[in-house]
Amino acid sequence: MSTPTTTEGSGPEEPIHVDGQTELDAAVSDYDVVLADFYADWCGPCQMLEPVVKTLAAETDTAVTKVDVDANQQLASTYGVRGVPTLVLFAGGEQVEEIVGVKSEDELRSLIERYTE
């Protein structure tokens, strides 16, 4: 797991690429709010969502993790991911939201802010 720079009280400014349950669990325990982006390199909608996810990592108090479903099929199955992109939001160590498909930056930002404010 890469550890990008952080500022006090917020998540990393870059998405964290996680490989496996242990790394995702570590991110969920290290940060109050975590947005896990389950994606695939071949997925067009995932590529459309990528700049939104990067912006949210840089501009919100959430840690954004990236989970490649092809490399982490068991992890995707654990969270019931049936299609990509799927975003799973964790707050206080618990899964609180699941979003399937591409959503706008504003929609995702307001969802995150429900748990970070």
TrEMBL record:
CDD domains: TRX_family
InterPro entries: Thioredoxin (IPR005746), Thioredoxin-like_sf (IPR036249), Thioredoxin_CS (IPR017937), Thioredoxin_domain (IPR013766)
Alphabetically ordered keywords of this record: Disulfide bond, Electron transport, Redox-active center, Transport
SUPFAM superfamilies per record: Thioredoxin-like
Every Thioredoxin domain range: 1-117
Annotated NCBIfam families: thioredoxin
Protein name according to UniProt: Thioredoxin
Organism: Halovenus rubra
